[in-house]
Design a protein that fits this description.
It is a single chain. The chain is built from 3 helices and 3 strands. The protein is α+β, with helices and mostly antiparallel strands. It has one domain (3-60): Aminopeptidase (3-Layer(aba) Sandwich). Strands 1-3-2 form a 3-stranded antiparallel β-sheet, covered by helices on one side. The protein starts with a helix and ends with a strand. It comes from Paenibacillus mellifer. One of its GO terms (molecular function) is acyltransferase activity, transferring groups other than amino-acyl groups. This is GCN5-related N-acetyltransferase Rv2170-like domain-containing protein. Residues 12-37 form the GCN5-related N-acetyltransferase Rv2170-like domain.
């Protein structure tokens, strides 16, 4: 993740949510160091919602 952003904000962990159909965003987040830790299926209205699951990703600052 951008070192300047991390330094300015001062948090150790960052979380985000992205839908499974947004593959470009998922690839970008992975390149920035985010990893998936949970996948929550869209139970109702999948066609109307336009996705099958919400993906939760986390980035943790290196300790040390």
């Amino acid at each position: 993740m951008n070192d300047e952003l991390v330094t300015r904000l001062g948090y150790e962990d960052y979380f985000l949510e992205v839908v499974d159909t947004n593959t470009a965003a998922i690839r970008l987040y992975e390149k920035l160091g985010f990893v998936e830790f949970r996948r929550k299926p869209q139970r109702c209205f999948r066609k109307q919602a336009g996705f099958n699951a919400r993906i939760y990703m986390r980035w943790m600052q290196s300790r040390g």
